[in-house]
Amino acid sequence: MASKIEQLHFLLVPLMSQSHIIPLTDFAKLLARRGVFVSIVTTPLNAIRYKGVIEHAKAQDLKIQMIPIKFPCQEVGLPEGCENLDALDSMGLAWKFFRACDMLQAPLEKLMEELEPKPSCIVSSIPIPWTEKVCRKFKIPRYNFETVSCFTLLCARNLSQVDQESILSDTEPFLLPDIPHKIEFTRAQLPTHRRPTGGSEEYEDQPIPAKVPARATLVNSFEELEPGYLDGYRKKEGKVWCIGPVSLCNKELPERSARGNKASIDEHYYLTWLESKKPKSVIFACFGSMCRISFRQLKEIGSGLEASNSPFIWIIRKQDYTAQVEEWLTEEGLEARVGKRGLIIRGWAPQILILSHPSVGGFLTHCGWNSTLEGICAGVPMITWPMFAEQFFNEKLIVNVLGIGVAIGVEGRMSFNGETEHLVRWDQVKRAVEKVMDVGSEESRTRRKRAEELAKMASNAVEEGGSSDMNFTMLIQDVLDQLQ
Ligand code: UDP
């Protein structure tokens, strides 16, 4: 099989968002470690952002390249430089962003004609649906890469069986049919699936859009994590392979610290700070790459962390970090009051590096799927604070199915740009941190033990002969079988 594998050329086309490019780049490294040649198509600014990751992979003799295609910002009226969902100031710009994504079809087709060796398949995620047409044109298979869990996929699918007419209000709980656990949702928690049409500037979350035909679906998850949901989804959708958690491919320090973006401060600073703390004592608070958090809400988070008495690392995204926030942190004295107990980062942090440090004992997360899975791999219990998209599904998985989380208590989704928010008060933050970091209670010990067991299962899944490793082999064999 080895020499045949070297004929393979996988073309990956991720949506230009951190939660897609990051796992697909990890996936690329896993493929390349098996001898496959991998090209990742993206835009010039994203290629610059990931330059370090690609260079590091090349230094390990992995055959990976990133191919930039010009992103038509001007043509759709997007400000120059808006090449990633995390760069959008308002989600009103999102429809333009997706229009620009759709315009990449023609340049990709041109690229396909020029690429050597010819691509054997395309792996893309659903928000880039036109890749299916490209595959048909070039007569190669497409594989769908899911950046959500099997739990979300099955729940979202079964939502269509719910009689919406019988639900009287957005806050009335209803049971989701035909899933292995008794799970309730409210309409206020559910993502909406609309994409803009006919030039409308209306836009809402778009987590699970309509299905696009694919030869098979690859899920960044592992079979042992959610077997009932994988089976349920497979029965309905056919070929589904769990190939994750892909983040576990990052074993060396440079891989862990430069993932997704350049970290705002040097990794040694984090490591020295973490080394000074007791094992499992630190709470890590990070809300992904896209959520907008208001100043009002940031103050509640900071005050809650301060009142909790646990050491903490708290990441404030660049977009939320204003002069007003800085004044509150410095002149009004939060940073001085917490002193060495707290590390507040303005910008981007090396999440998997921090999470995997033995001093970290809890994760306050917005429940993005990548973050959820990275928390599982680190074996830490989580405080769940879903904000939008499919994050409420992930909260149910973490808290109700896996039993490794404490819900902070958010009742409904906020809008993508933070205009509608459900304010979480400082005392809710404090209480949740105390609960998850508690070392005395039986409930807390059980949660932590379960989290550690799942981390072990995750690492077994990607080891040689593990379920995800074997699914990887099946994927490669499947592509080989179709070589013309
Ligand atoms: N991330 C990171 N540092 C940060 C913020 C985010 O490394 O400061 C990474 C995180 O590890 C994860 C991804 O960005 O891999 C975020 O993806 P997720 O699906 O959790 O959330 P989204 O960004 O889509 O809301």
Structural commentary:
The protein is of the alpha/beta class and 484 residues long. The chain folds into two domains: 2-249 and 465-483, Glycogen Phosphorylase B (Rossmann fold, 3-Layer(aba) Sandwich), CATH 3.40.50; 264-458, Rossmann fold (3-Layer(aba) Sandwich). Helix content is 41%, strand content 13%. It has helices at 2-5, 18-33, 44-49, 51-59, 73-76, 94-102, 105-114, 131-138, 150-158, 227-237, 253-257, 267-275, 295-308, 323-329, 334-338, 351-355, 369-378, 391-401, 426-437, 442-462, 467-481, and strands at 9-13, 37-42, 64-68, 121-124, 142-146, 174-175, 184-185, 216-219, 240-242, 282-286, 312-316, 342-346, 360-365, 382-384, 405-407. The strands form three sheets. It has a seven-stranded parallel beta sheet with strand order 3-2-1-4-5-8-9, sandwiched between helices. A six-stranded parallel beta sheet has the order 12-11-10-13-14-15, sandwiched between helices. It has a two-stranded antiparallel sheet with strand order 6-7. Strand 6 and strand 7 form a beta hairpin. It is globular. The two termini are 16 Å apart. Uridine-5'-diphosphate binds at residues 18-19, 22, 259-260, 286, 288-291, 315, 348-349, 351-352, 368-371, 374.
